[in-house]
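To fix ideas, we quote verbatim one protein's residues and fold tokens.
>
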Amino acid sequence: MGTDHLLSLFKEITRIPRESGHEEQIIAYLQKFAEDRNLECKTDEAGNVLIIKEATPGKENTPTIILQSHSDMVCEKNSGVEHDFAKDPINYVIEDGWMIAKDTTLGADCGIGMAAQLALLEDENLEHGKIEALFTTAEETGLDGAKALKPGFLSGDILINLDSEDEGELFIGCAGGLDTTAEFHYTPKKLASHKVSAKFGYCGGLGGHSGDDIDKGRANAVQILGRFLYRAYEECGIELCTIDGGNKRNAIAREAYAVIAFNSSDEDRVVELFNETLEAVRDEYSLTDPNLQGIAEPIKWEGDVIDSKTVKNLIYSLNFAPHGVLAMSASMKGMVETSTNLASVKVLDNNIIRVGTSQRSSNNYAKSFAGQRVEAAFKAVGAEVSHNSEYPGWQPRLDSKILETSVAAYKKLFNADPIVRSIHAGLECGLFLDIYPNLDMISFGPTIRGVHAPGERLDLVSLDKFWLLLQEIIKSIK
């Protein structure tokens, strides 16, 4: 079975809503897929689906292999784009060997892994041992499906995770993660009648995955907005009407804006500070994020504004809170060890401003300290801070048998050595080990770029190689 069928299955998946926490339709699709092909299917209370295909004749004594991907996707779109992820199919184009969703995320993370599992379940020509195809839920918002797995749901001792994004690389470890949330409780107050108001914001950034792209020097729109607000507050005593920046905790913020109020006599200086900040960051990110833009427009604000003490504390903490790479690995050259992502800032109901952040590290102590640093930045100004969605890293095993098999298969197919390394992004593998400590695991996938951001794209040449490698590994397991 060739790559065309795999790609057609992925195209089917792009038509099915599957935002994290709203995966009912993709779960039903998987269940019907199994039913239509007379394959055993189990679904647990978390919505994790397991489809089982028995070994082909003569392969009954081959070890059971678990193929794993997650069924949800990050749903991000460019501002002004009309797209409802709860019902609309993903719009994509095929250009220059890439499958691209230009205005939204594509969902190749991890839809292409799902499609590969389904293609293998349909393949009648491939000789294989027993296959357990596991589809976990809510990976993107906290790895909830993997956390909910129970002993006995799986029977295999070999697991291939299909949630990686660099063809030619085999992953044998990943970072653990932790989300840290800060909340400010503010008092609304009336806006003085003599004040004028305007909306200022920054957009056009590449954004991207807060793990895999954190070392690429990309702009964070929340951080940039904080820089401007700090200067405008210090020089002009601005008032904050509302603020909205970033979105998902595992995506680098691409857009952020605030509506602020100020004396009419300060208007020219506020605009000047905004433009100075824009010019500075365009120069700063000219090579790594060249399309940064500014939004500045007058707006008549008729609601309340945020009390001055909270405004000061919020602006100061947004400037003080760390963002980006905190430490590089000493044991693996070029590998990020620890990072933090200043992901979002939102005004919520009930007079609350929430700041979302995410920390990652391959070292559990460093991960905890990164969370502590973020906590201190917000707690020092009176915010309420909480930690959640913590998950463990996956420590590399260089004596792995599935690694040995995978390296040999790659060499056989492509006459080249694959890169073997850990990834700074989070995978579910560390959680699987907590429940099934004897698992021998590896992760790989085709090349996907722009993950967790509009413009996400899948390299179709790499998809061919990924598919050949997956089949060869399964055939090679003795």
